[in-house]
Amino acid sequence: MQDKEEERSLMNVEKKLSADGFTKDFKVEKGRLCTMDGAASKTYGPEDVTIVDFYRFEGESNPDDMSILYAIEANDGVRGTISAAYGTYGDVDANEFMLQVENLGKNLTKQHK
User: Fold this and answer.
1) Which helix (H) or strand (E) is 16 found in, with range?
2) 3-state secondary structure of 2
3) Whole-angstrom Cα distance, residue 26 to residue 10?
């Protein structure tokens, strides 16, 4: 039987999401969500994506080092993940983008299984 913490490790969650079709890695550049596909990269605005699920992780040595892994689906069917860190190492661009998506009401609050 797997230990609860091991089940919730970032790597295990990413592996499960990938198996469920969330295969793209996203990042935020210039206020837009981008797939990390090099020259074939696609970009999306906050209105173009929906948060399907999210997972919170606390730092091992400091609970203030928190990050969230979002499972995202774009309006063209592209599915992937983006991780947004908070605290000292926070990604301001990613956090602002995801807040805009949430403010548009495009978060489905834990509907993915």
Assistant:
1) helix 10-19
2) coil
3) 16
Q: Are 80 and 23 in contact (CB under 8 A)?
A: yes
Residue 105: strand pairing partners:
none
Tell how strand 32-35 and strand 43-44 pair up.
antiparallel
DSSP state of 8: T
Identify any residues that bridge with 51 across adjacent strands, giving them in sequence order.
72, 107
What does DSSP say about strands 66-74 and 24-29: parallel, antiparallel, or unpaired? unpaired
pTM, whole model, 2 decimals?
0.79
Per DSSP, 107 falls in state: B
Task: Name which of 45, 11, 47, 14 is nearest 28 in CA terms.
Answer: 45
Phi, psi of 13 (to 5 degrees): -65, -45
Does domain 4-103 sit in CATH 2.60.450? no
Domain ranges of the chain: 4-103
What's the average model confidence in pLDDT over 52-62? 79
